[in-house]
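Input chain follows. Return structure tokens only.
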Amino acid sequence: MGTSETRGPERAVDPRLIPSVLLPVGVVASLLVIWELMARSGLLPGILFSSPTTVFATLFDSLRSGEMFGHVTATLARMIPGLLLGAIPGLLLGLAMGSSSRLRRALDPLLMMIHPIPKIAILPLLMIFLGIGEASRIAVAAIAAFFPMLINTMAGVQQINPVYFEVAQNYGANRTKLLTGVVLPGSLPMALSGLRLAANVTLLVTISAEIVMANEGLGSLVWLAWETLRVELLYATLIVISLLGISISMGLRWLHRRLAPWQRAQEARR
């Protein structure tokens, strides 16, 4: 008798994923071709719409020279500290307010009054207290990150089923056990969603602050492109901002899947 090899099941590609990938790629490619043809034929004014080939050539030159990398580094050097300085207090206060109705009633009116204020509008006030250096730019980014993290974490704690608290208390769990065994795992998915939202808002506010007051960073490059009417550089910078935002979102989505795998399993069963 001949020996037979045992092979594991081969995973076939889900045919439903192919249209979901090809469709957006086809739409973007079609729009770029139409844009290129209209720009070359003169149907689009060159002062407003550079051709895609010109935009990508400008992007390639800025990457090759290292200029674009320098501006990306400057933006991240403001965004990441701002995100950490805002998200960590937002997480802690969100856990506390979600767990304590008395604290929530005391602080919720004040926070809801401050939250609707555009964060970039607070920048002049921060410049008075912190000066016109990096501290004020990082501070406005931190304020932008604080509220999404706070609201999502607080909502995550409030949506935990009270049965879990009752079961833990019946088994003699103290406050520390309740926090580590019920509150943190139960609110983690919402908190991670808040982190993704906070990162997007922080990037937006950081770039806005750079437009107002910075010599380096993607926001300052957008402003420079507008001042010098270099439309191709403006579009190239916007592409980099989009790719940076997508990369940050995908990285945090991966972190979400790693830290809260049970939520993905629950969604798959629905």
